[in-house]
Structure to design on (198 residues):
């Protein structure tokens, strides 16, 4: 049985959305970060970083939202949440799946802290570049892979929803509003929102 270790109002949202989208049976294990539950010895065995989300699936255990997305999509191909390893779209899917933690999240930290980092040394370039590139990409098709929804959309959609609508750290753009609207309209997103609200 898949077990998702999560906490309300946290980065757990994307993993909850993923599992709701997948249709797979899973158990949610509340790991309330407001009480320090993520620092318990039991939880640190699952994720030594002491962060949620984390997941166990039989003998497999892992953390990091994008890794959880990749794992579920690959381990359970019947969910059709990722292109097959032999599909040429796989390269594009992987690029955008990891764009969220490697570009969107650092860009948000840069905006929040007003941190000045030379674009030549910042792995994400700059916050402006991240959101300009994403804007251009989202103008091309309904989803990252064209008409096909994938876990890359979960990673990008969750991050963009928080950045634009929840925390209002990134000004809305027409492509962002349309894309977030498509994400929010998905029944699995709506179920995940209710769960994640606690």
């Amino acid at each position: 049985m898949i077990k998702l270790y999560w906490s309300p109002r946290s980065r757990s949202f994307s993993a909850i959305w993923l599992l709701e989208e997948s249709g797979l049976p899973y158990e949610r294990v509340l790991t309330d970060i407001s009480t320090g539950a993520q620092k318990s010895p039991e939880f640190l065995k699952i994720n030594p970083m002491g962060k949620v989300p984390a997941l166990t699936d039989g003998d497999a255990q892992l953390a990091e939202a994008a890794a959880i997305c990749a794992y579920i999509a690959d381990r359970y191909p019947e969910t059709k949440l990722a292109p097959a390893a032999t599909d040429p779209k796989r390269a594009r899917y992987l690029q955008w799946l990891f764009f969220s933690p490697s570009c969107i999240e650092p860009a948000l930290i840069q905006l929040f802290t007003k941190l000045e980092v030379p674009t030549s040394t910042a792995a994400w370039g700059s916050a402006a570049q991240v959101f300009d590139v994403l804007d251009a990409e989202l103008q091309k098709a309904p989803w990252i892979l064209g008409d096909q929804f994938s876990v890359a959309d979960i990673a990008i959609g969750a991050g963009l929803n928080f950045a634009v609508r929840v925390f209002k750290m990134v000004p809305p753009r027409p492509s962002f509003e349309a894309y977030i609207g498509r994400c929010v309209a998905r029944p699995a997103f709506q179920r995940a929102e209710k769960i994640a609200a606690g």
User: Anything to note?
Assistant: The radius of gyration is 17 Å. Residues 27 and 48 are 21 Å apart (CA to CA). The longest helix spans residues 151-166. The first strand starts at residue 2 and ends at 6.
